[in-house]
Amino acid sequence: MIKDTQQKLKAVRYCVALDIVPYLEVVVRFAGDTAKTPTDITDVDVLGIQPAGSSAGRRIFFDCKSGQKMSAINRALWAGGLRSMIRADEGFVILAKSAPHGHRLAGNTIGVRVFAEKLFDVFALAASKDYALPSSYMEQIAAWDALGKIREHFPPLRDLVNFLCSQAPLEDSPVAGLRSLVSQLKRVEGELDPSKPQHRALFLLMVAQALVYLSAMARTYHNVFDPGDELAEFEDSLRFFVWGGKEAYELRQRLNVAIQSARGVEKAPAFDFPGWPNFVEMFRSFLDAPFTLAPTCLPIKDMAFRELSTIDPQIDARLAKRLQANNRVRQYAMATAAYLVNASRLPREFRDYLTTTLSAVSAANP
């Protein structure tokens, strides 16, 4: 049961209106935990990731409280600590009742904006007129419930769902995040069935999350990319970038050789990222327009939630506008889907389904 539902949906709508990718009830754990069983620290009511484009990506969060057990400034101080822990750029506290001016102004000094619900509506509408309109399947709480229930209905997919809902948006390194995503995919090989809407939703969520990582990677790598480089030179540079530098890659390669030698393999194959030739081709195409990856993330995640919702023609029309706003959305989404299918040996029907659905939704009319 999701608590403080209306406030959380306001936060989600705000994110969607500003092209920020929302995540609901994100579990926070401490990466340096030394216990055998990791302990949850807290959860973030709503986390928003603004994908990297011409500007660096941003991370914002929302703390939603319909009760008033704690004063506004204490809530803001708690949120300030959370902001520091998850390395967010800004935090919002949404309360049922108005807070004293001093509490709100003090919150601003620690990067936390405190709002009563009604004042948050005014603020959000000033930030974007789209806030006034229901425009996304992610604004339906039933879809978030359905996503959470995938853990119960399909136990082998529990870790993948947990990763997509909590670990992925809190990952600071996009290259490490992409490596983890591909690793998670390989672990569920044979478990995903394209005939099931829940599984199609997970695949689309993976595509959207990969695009979030790739948008940051393309922005970072673009300023060292030289279109005049030979393919071999580009591959070496990209390979080292993906593995965190030349030294880190060579260490992994030596470990790979040692493992293969222990298995009796005289000449170990080169250690590479899964589906490496396809990844090189895909990433090179992204570098032609690296800042246009960002607008692709939100509509693809919305399409994932469409699989968990009752189809609404008005929301489809709003989604179609987002898909049509950037002529790279279809190209980049399909390239990413094709890469993930190839790298993890998922059924090709997932990629084909995305192709068909993109065409159908893009043609939707208001």
Cα separation of the termini? 33 Å
Number of domains: 2
> What class do helices, strands and sheet pairing give?
alpha/beta
Sheet with the most strands, sense and barrel status: 5 strands, mixed
Q: Helix and strand succession?
A: HEEEHEHEHHHHHHHHHHHH
Shape: globular
Can you describe this structure?
The protein has 366 residues and is of the alpha/beta class. It folds into two domains: 5-133, Trna Endonuclease, Chain: A, domain 1, CATH 3.40.1350.10; 138-241 and 274-362, no CATH class. 57% of the residues lie in helices and 11% in strands. It contains 15 helices and five strands. The chain has a five-stranded mixed β-sheet with strand order 1-2-3-4-5. The longest helix has 26 residues, at 197-222.
How would the blueprint of this fold be written?
Layout: H1 5-17, E1 21-29, E2 40-50, E3 58-65, H2 72-86, E4 90-95, H3 101-108, E5 112-116, H4 117-127, H5 141-153, H6 158-170, H7 174-187, H8 197-222, H9 231-242, H10 246-262, H11 276-286, H12 294-306, H13 313-324, H14 329-344, H15 349-362
Parallel strand pairs: 3-4, 4-5
Antiparallel strand pairs: 1-2, 2-3
Helix pairs in contact: 2-3, 5-6, 6-7, 6-8, 7-8, 8-12, 8-14, 9-10, 11-14, 12-14, 14-15
Features:
single chain; 366 residues; alpha/beta; Trna Endonuclease, Chain: A, domain 1; 2 domains; 5-stranded mixed β-sheet; 15 helices
Compose a concise summary of this entry:
This protein is of the alpha/beta class and 366 residues long. The chain is 57% helix and 11% strand. It is built from 15 helices and five strands.
